[in-house]
Amino acid sequence: MGEFALSTDAWIVSGVALAYLVGCLWVGMRGGSGASDSALGYVAGDRALGPLVMYFIIGATVFSAFSFLATPGLALTSGAAVFYVLGYGLVGFIPFYFLGPRAARLGRSRGYITQAEMVAGECRHAPLAGTMALVSALSFVPYLALQIKGAGLVVNRLTEGQVPEWLGSAVCYAVVLAYVLKSGVLGVGWTNVFQGVLMMALAWAFGLWLPYKLYGGVGPMFEQIAAAKPEVEGGALFLSAPGAKTWTWFLNSGVISMIGFVCWPHLFMKAFSARDERTLRRTVVFYPTFMIFLVPIFLIGFAGVLFPSQPSSPEQILPHMLMSLDLPVLVVGLFCAGALAAGMSTGDAIVHASASILVRDGWITALRRPLSSTQERTAVRVLIVVLMFASYALAVLYSGDLVSLLLYAYGPIAQFLPGLLVSVLGRRRDGVALHVALVVGVVVCVALKMYPERAPWGMHEGLCGLAANVVVLLALSLARGWRPFSASSGSNAPA
Asked: Among 123, 100, 82, which Cα is nearest to 279's?
């Protein structure tokens, strides 16, 4: 396949990828046909999402371009460090079993359809919603850029550079833009089902076949790695290789990701969209099965450790091996579609959620400027376009690795944790204290991102920001005579 880009094979792979994009477009356009012509229908699917759609739409928060591209690259270079993804995905979701149904109950009783709307409403401090909307956008844009960049990288590599990354990204996300604009959250949900089934099947097929093809199986693969690289204790499974991630990085990344994972605004928006609390709890219980599909992705990265040739960057190891092995061209095309599905299934949920949040929280709630249902849908659609273009620009200009881009997104979003806990679990709430603490946490997080050498003990900037956030919240609580999670009755503190 050395002349892949000049041969008929290139057209076959492109045709398979194009067929996948057409399929996504059709499913996405049809998916929204059951929703009402209202803002609630467009943003929250009329609160009618069933177990199947909920399972895949929440699973898409993990199974993204990061999973298909960055995690094999991380396994290739740092071994065990890659397992932090499993840790934060499994442990980080546990709190949602308790927080999600409570949030859904509040949403149904008080009309909430966004996370910030709930926090600001329960704390009776409307400006808090506006700040949370801005912080959400600050985190969503790099997260969406990661998905866009991943799509462009896949298309570029599998066409041997004939299609530039910027063009591959543009084509894929033009499809996303079309069905999200047309169908809203239901279009996102049903395309996630289609994309999820495809990428799960392909992940297991390639992740198990590749170690067998190259090494004779998974066990022999690790044995050969250990024998070939004695300078690494225990082979690729230990964080002692030159240039590998450190244990400090491993722990930092795991903790900030676990905290940030349960704080994602689009996760709570899906809670508000669920048919009922039982559906939501079932989704959380079955969610670990989705994480299992990350294991074969890790194996792909380990399989690349002793591969005869190496890509220009670790994140290209999956498409690099696809192109280097003597595989049927139809199979290559299917894996291209699977990798695209991973990025698009997350990107569509992100762009829809971020636009909805900015309109609902930043304009309607914080500024107290009501919109008609038609005006709200129009405003959300306009912002979808704006955010998509902003994220696309960042994806084209960004030259760093995908893992760093993801971890940057988690820092600001983790600052929502105190507000979420207090609003969902607390009895008495002080919106002013929460608002000030949130701002302090975000400022510390961003400042240390710019000057990482000032972070104490090598801590992730998000953890430093969260520590400052909690300290300020507790100090203001004491000063204002308020206690978080107080069991005493009484009205919320005035804003």
From this structure: 100
User: Could you give the CA distance from residue 175 to residue 363 in angstroms, rounded to a whole number?
Assistant: 28
- Please tell us whether the domain made up of 16-416 is placed in CATH 2.40.160.20: no
Handedness of CA 394, 400, 402, 403 (dihedral sign): negative
pTM metric for this prediction: 0.80
Which residue, among 21, 11, 71, has the nearest Cα to 318 in the 3D structure? 71
Q: Which residues are 49's β-sheet partners? A: 274
Rounded distance between C-alpha atoms, residue 274 and residue 380, angstroms:
21
| Residue 103, both tokens | 């949030």
- Mean pLDDT (10-residue bins), the chain, 495 residues: 51 79 86 69 73 80 72 81 77 84 88 90 91 90 86 79 85 88 82 83 86 91 80 50 63 82 85 83 83 85 88 83 80 79 80 88 86 87 92 87 73 92 80 93 92 85 94 86 52 40
Q: Where in the chain is the domain with CATH 1.20.1730.10?
A: 16-416
Mapping DSSP onto H, E and C, the string for the chain reads CCCHHHCHHHHHHHHHHHHHHHHHHHHHHHHHHHCCCCHHHHHHHHHCECHHHHHHHHHCCCCCHHHHHHHHHHHHHHHHHHHHHHHHHHHCCHHHHHHHHHHHHHHHHHCCCCHHHHHHHHHCCCHHHHHHHHHHHHHHHHHHHHHHHHHHHHHHHHCCCCCCHHHHHHHHHHHHHHHHHHHHHHHHHHHHHHHHHHHHHHHHHHHHHHHHHHHCCHHHHHHHHHHHCCCCCCHHHCCCCCCCCCHHHHHHHHHHHHHHHHHCHHHHHHHHHECCHHHHHHHHHHHHHHHHCCHHHHHHHHHCCCCCCCCCCHHHHHHHHHHHCCCCHHHHHHHHHHHHHHHHHHHHHHHHHHHHHHHHHHHHHCCCCCCCHHHHHHHHHHHHHHHHHHHHHHHHHCCCCHHHHHHHHHHHHHHHHHHHHHHHHCCCCCHHHHHHHHHHHHHHHHHHHHCHHHCHHHCCHHHHHHHHHHHHHHHHHHHCCCCCCCCCCCCCCCC
- Please state, in angstroms and rounded to a whole number, the distance separating the CA atoms of residues 400 and 343: 17
C-alpha torsion angle, residues 135, 139, 140, 141 (rounded to 10): 110
Nearest 5°: the CA angle 180, 112, 285 is 75
Best CA proximity match to 419, nearest among 398, 392, 405, 440: 440
Contacting residues for 60 by C-beta, under 8 A, at least 6 apart: 192, 195, 196, 345, 346, 349
